[in-house]
Amino acid sequence: MKYAHLVKLTAFSHEGEDSESIRDAFLRFFPFSLEENKVILNKTAAEGFHGRKIAVFGAKLAKNSLISRFLENLLSNLDEIQKQKTLMQLDSRLDENLDFFLRFDKDSWIEENKLVLTDSGKCFHLKISIAAFPKKREAALNVIMDLFGKVKT
Fold first, then answer.
1. Per the CB 3.0–4.6 Å rule, which of 10, 26, 98, 153 could disulfide with 140?
2. What is the Cα–Cα distance from 114 to 123, expressed in whole angstroms?
3. CATH number of the domain to which 68 belongs
4. What DSSP element (H or E) covers 64?
């Protein structure tokens, strides 16, 4: 089953943070080599408040096989508590374009290799464009529930 048309992962590395450890943690989201699969890892520079320098890491997946492998890896790294939390917050995480958003705590992933949902800005941002047919909110919610292992009755 096709769950998504596009997956986009983004992370910010602020001045004073270890940019290399953030990059390494970013790459752990992908159970395959980005380079071998011709996926571009973007690193751009930005300026934050008070002139602080920020490195922005980003990658997009559009190929179905890579999206499937990415989502399998993501789900295998989420414990049941995080999956249940996602399902409980499902409605607020899906926008009108049927894009599904998750944020994972940066420190937990870097230091403990554990995905923990967060609402803070110190995180890895994940955007999943849900493949729903018909392109309606209810169909997208069902796709997400199926993906997280709970089919709506």
1. 98
2. 12
3. 3.30.1440.10
4. helix 64-76
